């Protein structure tokens, strides 16, 4: 194991992030993807606002007081969040489940929470009245939108005594009025399950592609330690092609120093990997370097990227 993989070089903080201004309601696009930072994503459709793995705190750890410090501020603060209809929780780790933030959102918006089996061990009914624990391949419908909880190759843990108590997973979001498809991997290693997920999604949408995929590419060094739970930037590119995704977003990097890679190393490796592919094989895969003002509107007929 290389010592350089363990002692990562990161700045103390990045102070120049301007928070995003978010529309309360989507008007023109089929859907809009807003990268908040790390694994936190806001997805807006014409009828719903969907928040995935939201973490806005300055530290991830017990009571948000102890643990790893955030290097760069989130792209959206709580006050800028629109009313949230659904919250999707892929894992119970501190970097994907911010209990204090979840309480504030649910208290304000009466949001519905979807997550893996045993989620009720962490979200008590007194604070979170509407929670749906899902097993892999379970789905749930609300008006024109369906949520599918799909497999992932990762572990879950929040405390010392709850390893793999929570069922981690990925999410597939399907708007069956527009036939729009969004896949969020959550924390995951690369394996054949990506191809199996693509096949499963194709049976739902009757399409041979996915409109938008959100793939992790951080916390991947040293590989001897993390290869079983986290994919590398190169594997994120392979996943992008396996899913036949029209556009993909790489997340999970340059916010919290959780792995052994250096700051911005994942982005550099991603770009190097993309450059190594033949030109005709390239499809759009975006890595957001910081939590700057990044909004990704997506229309099935015309794709626009504000980057």
Automatic annotation (TrEMBL):
Q: Which InterPro entries does the record match to this protein?
A: Metallo-B-lactamas, RibonucZ/Hydroxyglut_hydro
* Record-annotated membrane-spanning stretches: none
Q: Which domain of life is it from?
A: Eukaryota
| Occurrences of domain Metallo-beta-lactamase (ranges) | 49-245
GO cellular component annotations, sorted alphabetically? cytoplasm
Matching Gene3D superfamilies, A to Z? Ribonuclease Z/Hydroxyacylglutathione hydrolase-like
What the entry lists under PANTHER family is as follows: N-ACYL-PHOSPHATIDYLETHANOLAMINE-HYDROLYZING PHOSPHOLIPASE D
Q: Any idea what this protein is called?
A: N-acyl-phosphatidylethanolamine-hydrolyzing phospholipase D-like
Species of origin: Piliocolobus tephrosceles
